């Protein structure tokens, strides 16, 4: 997570030892639970697990001939750390499966990074998951990256390749993983598959890919709810990518050439979050939806939303005032309010939905070289502009 609690100096020593001991016990308990789970599998279920694992392992060789693996240690560590957390959750928690194998399938997951600028990720049977460098760069927080990894883990956990094989007699079992790679990665150049394009058409035409994506979105969200990551991260990732697709044609969409982020997809996630009473606190999961503070000259602190300055605080307590304003502004923006919800009171108080967001002081106006009233109006207008643009970036089911 991007926020962590820290122990005070007075608590270091015996308390930290106890904490480490408890953590070790928890890991040991998890390991035993996994052993017990494996022991509970009936022979036919275990045979399915083994078949997926073997098929996925066989095709990792093909994948790694086509794609160059990254040597970026920071990217690899980040993906493997977050992936391991999600994988541990998937191995021991039964979730609702809308399409695929509904059993609990405890795979040993492997996470690798591909050296490529595409915003992309895909999984193979048995839990072999590949994430492109471009996607890691695009994910603003660990919460968003966890959402993507949870989605890919769900594809493997729900055995979507095996499900497609069972439901479509037209497809050869050996071509299925390559179809998945091609559809998920946007590649149609994998060697050794001359009829790949026609097979992709059959798979997509059968509707299986839409069902698989919906199931993976929902499954990934459920895994996120078991984790310490913000479940809204999977939604903010999709929304931000949709914005890039609309306004920045230069971006290489990778996986989203064939599975574009859509309003329907986002609204389903919003509905699932609402059913679990999870508030849409986008500011907790994405920097693009969060008011951030930037230090300016002479001790001033600017409050910025999506790269647009809202106001700059000045004076000896500028930092404290800015931090208090940021908390209120984030809560306000998370509600996706209307423009008329912003107003000015008493000439220097900016109000959002009848709640004070911040006050403009004389020192702020002096630093900006305008009157207090004028700076207040400027800040109010800046917030309204940000709200106007925000409305085009979120799919909140309203």
What this model shows, in words?
By secondary structure, the chain is mainly alpha-helical. It has 2 domains: about 15-285, no CATH class; about 290-390, no CATH class. The chain is about 55% helix and about 10% strand. The strands form 3 sheets. It has a 3-stranded mixed β-sheet with strand order 1-3-2. A 3-stranded antiparallel β-sheet has the order 4-5-6. A 3-stranded antiparallel β-sheet has the order 7-8-9. α3 (about 75-90) crosses α5, α9 runs parallel beside α11 and α13 packs across α14 (about 370-390). It starts with 13 loop residues before the first helix and ends in an 8-residue tail after the last helix.
Helix content: 40-55%
Total DSSP E strands: 9
Rough shape? elongated
Strand fraction equals 5-15%
Question: Which structural class is indicated by helix and strand composition?
Answer: mainly alpha
Please describe the biggest sheet, giving its number of strands, its sense, and whether it closes into a barrel. Answer: 3 strands, mixed
Which residues sit in consecutive blocks of at least 5 with pLDDT less than 50?
A: 1-20, 188-206, 249-258
- Main sheet: strand order: 1-3-2
How confident is the prediction overall: mean pLDDT?
A: 83
List the helices and strands and how they pair.
Blueprint: H1 14-40, H2 43-66, H3 73-92, E1 110-114, E2 121-124, E3 128-132, H4 133-138, H5 142-157, H6 160-167, H7 176-185, H8 196-205, H9 208-226, H10 233-247, H11 263-275, E4 291-295, E5 301-305, E6 308-313, H12 318-334, E7 342-345, E8 349-352, E9 355-359, H13 362-368, H14 372-390
Parallel strand pairs: 1-3
Antiparallel strand pairs: 2-3, 4-5, 5-6, 7-8, 8-9
């Amino acid at each position: 997570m991007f926020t962590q609690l820290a122990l005070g100096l007075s608590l270091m020593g015996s308390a930290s030892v106890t904490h480490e001991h408890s953590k070790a016990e928890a890991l040991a308990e998890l390991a035993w639970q996994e052993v017990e789970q494996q022991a509970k599998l009936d022979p036919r279920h275990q045979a399915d697990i083994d078949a997926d694992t073997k098929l996925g392992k066989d095709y990792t060789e093909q994948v790694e001939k086509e794609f160059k693996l990254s040597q970026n240690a920071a990217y690899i560590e980040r993906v493997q750390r977050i992936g391991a957390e999600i994988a541990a959750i998937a191995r021991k928690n039964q979730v609702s499966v809308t399409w695929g194998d509904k059993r609990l399938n405890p795979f040993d997951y492997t996470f690798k990074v591909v050296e490529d600028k595409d915003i992309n990720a895909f999984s193979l049977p048995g839990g072999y998951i590949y994430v492109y460098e471009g996607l890691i760069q695009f994910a603003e927080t660990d919460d968003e990256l966890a959402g993507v990894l949870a989605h890919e883990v769900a594809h493997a956990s729900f055995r979507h390749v095996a499900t497609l094989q069972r439901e479509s007699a037209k497809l050869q079992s050996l071509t299925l993983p390559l179809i998945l790679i091609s559809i998920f990665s946007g590649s149609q150049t994998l060697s050794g598959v001359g009829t790949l394009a026609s097979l992709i058409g059959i798979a997509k035409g059968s509707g299986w890919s839409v069902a698989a994506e919906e199931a993976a979105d929902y499954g990934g969200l459920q895994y996120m709810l078991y984790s310490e990551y913000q479940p809204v991260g999977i939604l903010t990732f999709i929304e931000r990518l949709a914005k890039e697709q609309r306004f920045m044609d230069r971006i290489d969409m990778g996986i989203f050439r064939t599975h574009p982020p859509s309003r329907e997809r986002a609204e389903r996630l919003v509905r699932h979050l609402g059913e679990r009473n999870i508030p849409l606190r986008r500011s907790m999961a994405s920097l693009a939806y969060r008011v951030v503070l930037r230090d300016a000259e002479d001790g001033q602190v600017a409050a910025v939303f999506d790269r647009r300055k809202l106001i700059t605080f000045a004076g000896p307590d500028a930092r404290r005032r800015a931090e208090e304003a940021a908390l209120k502004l984030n809560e306000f923006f998370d509600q996706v309010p209307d423009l008329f919800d912003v107003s000015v009171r008493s000439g220097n108080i900016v109000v959002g939905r009848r709640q004070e967001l911040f006050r403009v002081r004389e020192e702020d106006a002096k630093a900006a070289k305008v009157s207090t009233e004028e700076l207040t109006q400027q800040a109010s207008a800046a917030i309204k502009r940000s709200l106007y643009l925000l409305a085009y970036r979120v799919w909140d089911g309203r």
